[in-house]
Design brief:
It is built from 14 helices and 2 strands. The chain has helices at residues 3-13, 25-28, 86-121, 131-136, 142-168, 172-178, 192-212, 217-220, 231-241, 247-250, 259-280, 288-297, 307-320, 326-330, and strands spanning 40-41, 46-47. A two-stranded antiparallel ribbon has the order 1-2.
């Protein structure tokens, strides 16, 4: 069974109960009646299929920003009140669990919608060419490129996340956060606390890495070959971008064998994105959430920063790219970036 069919099966499972002994609250909110019997054409004795409800089509807002369906939907939780009685607390927890389940359901539906859009874009990608080549050749816009990339990643996470959701039900957010299972959750199903927590941890790790020893521009120069980078710079860039687990920091080592490959992939992603942003609208036209994602990918702090400041730093990045390599910018703070 393909991941796409698994995704459709998961959407249907919200109104079924294949595992009656697991996570009762996962199914308790569904109040739909059983589906009516399928009518038959008495003359020819053939089944007449019922029409299925169609999801609304996804339309990218512009060439620069991917559709919001590639991002988590809004999460609205019931307000907590002090001095609740036992029964009222149970009702509050029930409503909270129901809100989370509705959020996850919307996230999975968004993946399904994005997948349909992805299939429409496939003919535009020439055979034998990568997505990056199609983007540079003008076959795809930046918005379409990121829709394809994010949807492929989300679809790959559907099977394992669906299993976690079926078992844990309304406790899924707790399990994901406290057991560190963010890697199995599709991006459209990331709750705000999960996103903020990951950003804070990464930025704290980045600050500590700079505190241990800031690399100067003179030490790097115009070096662009990742394979030739000194191990301290490899470790710093890997920590700054979150390319390897923080468990390595505890033992005072870094996976320097794998890091050059991972850093090269990150550099290639940034390079093609810089090209696409400049071509399709510029940093100034990125939406707020896309602005934060672009800053994150370039090792720029976003937690607690005003949108105007983040946009200003990214504009500075775009200017500095005219005189410096990506590795140089990733290895230094914005205050050390060369100016045009």
């Amino acid at each position: 069974m393909s991941k796409f069919h698994i995704c459709k099966h998961l959407l249907g499972s919200f109104h079924q109960r294949p595992f009656p002994f697991l996570a009762p609250a996962l199914y308790s909110y569904s109040t739909k009646a059983a589906a009516p019997a399928i009518p038959r054409d008495s003359k020819h004795s053939k089944t007449v299929p019922l029409r299925q409800a169609k999801l609304p089509p996804i339309k990218p807002l512009d060439a620069l920003n991917p559709p919001t369906s590639t991002l988590p939907p809004p999460l609205t939780l019931p307000a907590s009140e002090p001095n609740l009685s036992g029964t009222e607390k149970l009702k509050f927890f029930y409503r909270t669990g129901k809100a989370y389940l509705s959020f996850y359901k919307s996230g999975i539906k968004a993946i399904y919608q994005n997948y349909k859009t992805l299939r429409q874009l496939r003919p535009r990608i020439p055979r034998g060419k990568s997505l990056e080549q199609a983007l540079r050749d003008g076959a795809l816009t930046r918005a379409e490129y990121h829709l394809v990339k994010r949807t492929r990643r989300d679809v790959s996470r559907i099977p394992l996340f669906g299993l976690v959701l079926a078992i844990c039900g309304e406790f899924t957010p707790l399990v994901v956060i406290f057991l560190g299972l963010s890697g199995v959750v599709p991006r459209t199903c990331h709750i705000p606390r999960q996103i903020d927590g990951a950003r804070k941890k990464l930025e704290a790790r980045r600050r500590e890495s700079f505190r241990q020893g800031t690399v100067t521009v003179r030490e790097i120069g115009k070096l662009e070959d990742v394979q030739k980078l000194p191990k301290p710079i490899l470790a710093h860039v890997g920590r700054s971008l979150g390319l390897y687990s923080s468990l390595w920091d505890r033992i005072g080592l870094a996976p320097t064998v794998l890091l050059p490959w991972r850093i090269q992939k990150a550099v290639d992603r940034i390079d093609v994105d810089d090209f696409a942003i400049e071509r399709d609208g510029g940093m100034k036209n990125l939406s707020e959430e896309e602005l934060k994602l672009a800053a994150e990918e370039r090792g720029i702090d976003v937690v607690g920063k005003p949108i105007g400041e983040i946009r200003s730093v990214l504009a500075k990045w775009a200017e500095a790219r005219k005189r410096a390599s990506i590795i140089e910018l990733l290895s230094t703070r914005p205050s050390a970036w060369p100016q045009v």
